[in-house]
Amino acid sequence: MAKVYFYYSAMNAGKSTSLLQSSHNYRERGMHTLLLMPELDQRAGHGKVASRIGLSADAVTFSKDTDILALAKETHATEKLGCVLVDESQFLSKEQVSQLCNVADTMGVPVLCYGLRTDFQGKLFEGSAALLAWADNLIELKTICHCGRKATMNLRTDAGGKAIREGAQVDIGGNERYVAMCRRHFNKAISQAT
Predict the structure, then answer these.
(1) Distance separating alpha carbons of residues 108 and 112, to the nearest angstrom
(2) What element of type H or E holds 102?
(3) What is d(CA 189, CA 72) in angstroms, rounded to the nearest whole number?
(4) Catalytic site residue 88?
(5) Of the candidates 106, 107, 115, 105, which has an alpha carbon nearest to the alpha carbon of residue 136?
(6) What's the farthest any 2 CA atoms get from each other in the chain?
(7) CB neighbour list of residue 153: distance below 8 Å, 6 or more residues apart
């Protein structure tokens, strides 16, 4: 039975690296994978999943209007899918998570989703909330705070490195905009933000 997996973490835990390794493992065994990523994330270029350690692969982009189940069925009809992998899965809609569950349940294709659990204010993303509720397996990928404790929070910073408390939930960026921290240091940085 195929399952839906949600690999979640704070920033810099190696989610994209793990996704790319999983895709490589399937492909090395002669199986086709469908890599998906949100079209709003163009940090590595359009339709490119890239890790901070230099690995990358082409991906199909999705928007809030993309019917992922239909896309998976269309792809599966031309080349049998071994797995569907989703980078930055926090940007999925609740409906798209439901569609991915149908990929596993009706098509028998495993679905591996990689993303953040919470935003810079400690609030769940829509896609993450749905995945936490519906995924068959929840796997936390760990990274560390500067103090050595497990980082669970994503601190958004300005150009000067100062914490930002307010703003739009989505502001695409990497190390220049976000720092993974433990809850204690996250709360301390937020309390000092002006």
Answers:
(1) 13
(2) helix 94-107
(3) 42
(4) yes
(5) 105
(6) 55
(7) 10, 118, 122, 180, 181, 182, 183, 186
The pTM assigned to this predicted structure is 0.88
Catalytic pick among 28, 74, 88, 176: 88
Each residue of 58-116: pLDDT tens digit? 889 999 999 999 999 999 999 999 999 999 999 999 999 999 999 999 999 999 999 99
Residue type at position 163: A
Question: Domain 4-143 is in which class?
Answer: alpha beta
Task: Domain ranges for the chain, please list them.
Answer: 4-143
What is the torsional sign of CA 86, 89, 91, 94? positive
* pLDDT tens for each residue of 3-41: 999 999 998 888 888 889 999 999 999 999 999 999 876
CA distance 23 to 148: 30
Q: What are the strands, taking DSSP E only, across the chain? A: 4-9, 32-38, 48-50, 56-58, 60-62, 81-86, 111-116, 137-140, 153-156, 178-181
Q: Are 16 and 87 in contact (CB under 8 A)?
A: yes
Q: Report the distance separating Cα 168 and Cα 94, nearest Å.
A: 19
